[in-house]
Amino acid sequence: MTWPFVLELMLLGSCSGFLAGLLGIGGGMLLVPFLTFIFTQERFAEPLIVHMAIATALTTILFTSASSIRAHHRRGAVRWDIAPVMGVGAVLGTFGGAQLAGALKSTWLALFFALFVGVSALRMLLASRRADVDRAESLPTRPLLGAAGAGIGFISSLIGAGGGFLTVPFLHWRGLAMRNAVATSAAMGFPIAAGGLFGYVVAGMHADGLPHYALGYVYLPALVACATTSVLMAPVGAGVAHRVHGQALKRVFALLLLGLAGYMAFKGLRSA
User: Fold this and answer.
1) What burial class does residue 75 get, using C-beta atoms within 10 Å of its C-beta: 0-12 exposed, 13-18 middle, 19+ buried?
2) Is-contact 21 236, C-beta < 8 A?
3) pLDDT per residue as tens digits for the range 127-173
4) How far apart are CA 200 and CA 211, in angstroms?
5) C-alpha–C-alpha distance, residues 112 and 264, integer Å
């Protein structure tokens, strides 16, 4: 492990945290492709690279979500009657998804990531500019909320994201105001990351070819470097967000995500 390698990881965490604060979008979708590239350059075992990138990106959300939850809670925006119920389901779903990921080849994980991130980027590009409107809440029962959390956690564990790309539309569709949907989604990031951490540690505990300082599929040096700088830069991005045009930036970010999805598709097909 060299200093240029550490600096690359710190720069990646800084960019991820800044964009998360600027756009209100989790950094996992950005981290996974770049970690995949960096791990490839470091000549990590090819069959483990995508697994480690997803596991490490997902675990960073433990740290970034904590500060986000505090900020949203202070504004009274988190729906604590919803977040714990969905969170329990998310822990179970994310753990199960991590076990499945451990049994899949990197090819399938890379292609699954490319598909979901590509779709999310297209939705971002094509999103309507209609203002948020109030709807009558029509929340499902607690068991169904838990099931929704499990499904969101399951998919999130396969792409290394905090689930906001699914949680926010789901809650808004069920009648929550957008500010409450975003805040409650942020609270969901922590249980998703916790379940993913446990799941990927268990799934990768006996994997052959893991580098030094790996805990299961989680690569600890990358986790520390990315999480530290990401947490520091997220408030900076949030401050800039109040002085720039968010819609234009989201379109630029969506185009970047499309490019990263293309890279992951290429990576997956090349290793097939």
Assistant:
1) exposed
2) yes
3) 755 555 555 567 888 999 999 999 999 999 999 988 887 888 888 88
4) 15
5) 9
Q: Work out the angle between the directed axes of helices 49-74 and 142-159 (0-180°, nearest 10).
A: 130
pTM tops 0.70, yes or no? yes
Residue 243 burial (10 A CB sphere; 0-12, 13-18, 19+): exposed
Q: Which of 98, 110, 124 is nearest to 46 (CA)?
A: 110
Compute the Cα dihedral for 56, 125, 153, 241 and give only its sign: positive
- Residue 226, both tokens: 């990315």
pLDDT digits (tens, 9 = 90+) for 252-266: 778 888 998 999 999
Structure tokens at 67: 């500060």
